[in-house]
């Protein structure tokens, strides 16, 4: 490398550091299939560290139909603190049929509206994943089969973006829960068991969040 | 394929299931949105699409996004999709059908309309689709 080229490269490195935009808190997207407990987890984290919830929880699929953000969640671990923005996203799927909402005693007009909002929400979640998150918490229902195409595709998309990802095996309070099945499905990533509903194993959850996203 | 006629002018069977096997070569010449349109136009027609080489993660992400934008009440309800990573030097039936071997690890992918695929099941070395008639 010539002297002039080397000098220009050094100046470029210094100026890029000097004028780099303020990084701010990392945006951590909470992703996963519908009804995995994403909002329950987001609310648990937000309540534990800010006192506020993020959004309503429900057994009806696609209750979260817009990405919701909680900014500046400061998590303290081992004398250090890590500040993140939590983005709770709608459950990702490849199909939405309003008739599924009718099974939850929802009127047709409301079901059609919910399904339309759900499709917009999934599209928004995908857009966030491609453009706007710095890390991912992937939440799975540990009582459900993790070997689904949506899970495989989403983990593949996350890996292709080189985003740090933690897999949370949620709902360990359920009798049918199998954390090992989730660990077997995605052996390339760390799996953390928890019950967001009961608040079980949250210490390890926060340790891992600080370790991966701090 | 969208608007594809049965070969040799054979009469279209209104209650049949059309399966489009799309070669890696055909897809490789298309841009992302052209690939997605090719897939979704065929799926909208009620067809099952089999991609020899599948899509990249970014293309899969956009496929989900575009699929969501096209769902409508009492109409298109979305897609079912399953993939297989293909091992190197795969000399399987699909490649013989396509007249070529495979030297990459891209994914054989099956995509169909959600409202016509009753079940799309994958195990270790088999994707099995139960498709309803029109």
TrEMBL record, chain A:
<dbReference type="InterPro" id="IPR027417">
    <property type="entry name" value="P-loop_NTPase"/>
</dbReference>
<dbReference type="Pfam" id="PF01926">
    <property type="entry name" value="MMR_HSR1"/>
</dbReference>
<feature type="domain" description="G">
    <location>
        <begin position="27"/>
        <end position="171"/>
    </location>
</feature>
<dbReference type="InterPro" id="IPR005225">
    <property type="entry name" value="Small_GTP-bd"/>
</dbReference>
<dbReference type="InterPro" id="IPR006073">
    <property type="entry name" value="GTP-bd"/>
</dbReference>
<protein>
    <submittedName>
        <fullName>Era-like GTP-binding protein</fullName>
    </submittedName>
</protein>
Automatic annotation (TrEMBL), chain B:
<dbReference type="Pfam" id="PF09846">
    <property type="entry name" value="OapB"/>
</dbReference>
<dbReference type="InterPro" id="IPR012017">
    <property type="entry name" value="OapB-like"/>
</dbReference>
<protein>
    <submittedName>
        <fullName>DUF2073 domain-containing protein</fullName>
    </submittedName>
</protein>
């Amino acid at each position: 490398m010539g002297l002039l080229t080397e000098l220009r490269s050094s100046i470029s490195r210094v100026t890029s550091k000097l004028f780099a935009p303020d990084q701010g808190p990392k945006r951590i997207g909470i992703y996963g299939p519908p009804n995995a407990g994403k909002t329950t987890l987001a609310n648990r984290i937000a309540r534990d560290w800010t006192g506020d919830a993020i959004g309503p929880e429900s057994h009806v699929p696609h209750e979260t139909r817009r990405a919701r953000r909680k900014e500046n969640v400061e998590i303290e671990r081992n004398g250090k603190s890590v500040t993140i923005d939590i983005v709770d996203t709608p459950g990702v799927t490849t199909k939405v049929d309003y008739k599924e909402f009718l099974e939850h005693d929802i009127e047709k007009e409301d079901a059609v509206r919910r399904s339309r909002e759900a499709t917009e929400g999934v599209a928004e979640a995908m857009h966030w994943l491609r453009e706007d998150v710095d890390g991912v918490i992937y939440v799975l229902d540990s009582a459900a089969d993790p070997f689904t195409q949506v899970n495989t595709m989403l983990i593949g998309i996350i890996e292709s973006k080189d985003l740090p990802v933690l897999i949370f095996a949620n709902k360990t309070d359920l009798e049918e829960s199998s954390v090992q099945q989730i660990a077997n499905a995605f052996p390339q990533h760390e799996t953390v068991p928890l019950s967001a509903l009961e608040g079980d194993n949250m210490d390890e959850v926060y340790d891992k969040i600080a370790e991966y996203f701090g | 394929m969208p608007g594809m006629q049965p070969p040799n002018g054979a009469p279209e069977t209104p209650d049949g299931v059309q399966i489009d096997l799309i070669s890696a070569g055909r897809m490789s010449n298309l841009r992302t949105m052209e690939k997605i349109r090719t897939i979704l136009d065929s799926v909208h027609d009620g067809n099952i699409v089999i991609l020899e080489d599948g899509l990249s993660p970014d293309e899969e992400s956009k496929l989900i996004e575009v699929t969501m934008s096209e769902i409508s009440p009492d109409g298109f309800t979305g897609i079912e999709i399953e993939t297989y990573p293909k091992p190197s030097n795969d000399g399987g039936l699909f490649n013989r059908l396509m007249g070529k071997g495979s030297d990459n690890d891209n994914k054989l992918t099956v995509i169909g309309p959600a409202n016509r695929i009753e079940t799309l099941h994958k195990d270790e070395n088999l994707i099995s689709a139960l498709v309803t008639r029109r």
